[in-house]
Amino acid sequence: MSNDATLTSKGRTTIPKEIRDSLSMKAGDRMTFTLMPDNTVVMRVKSKSVTELAGTLHKKGRKAIPIEQLSL
Question: CA–CA separation, 69 vs 47, rounded Å?
């Protein structure tokens, strides 16, 4: 998927609607931009926090462990 956007004099741009919709982006979502050695820019949407993901990998029959009890 490829869409064009324009950079304003203040360094702002709009992510095209088709891309926002495909990524399920909403107002307030955070993004990370990474400049690759070949001058390609990779944008990653950071819309989920660790606490929002808690329980998504829960297996049937296993007791969930609170995030506070996990050791690093």
Answer: 24
Comparing 50 with 22, the larger pLDDT belongs to 22
The answer to the question of residue 61 being in a domain is no
| Alpha helices in 1-72, H assignment, sequence order | 17-22, 50-53
28-64 b/e with 16+ CB inside 10 Å = b? eeeeeeeeeeeeeeeeebeeeeeeeeeeeeeeeeeee
- Please tell me the pTM assigned to this model: 0.56
What is the C-alpha to C-alpha distance for residues 21 and 29, in angstroms, rounded to an integer?
13
Residue 26 lies in a domain: yes
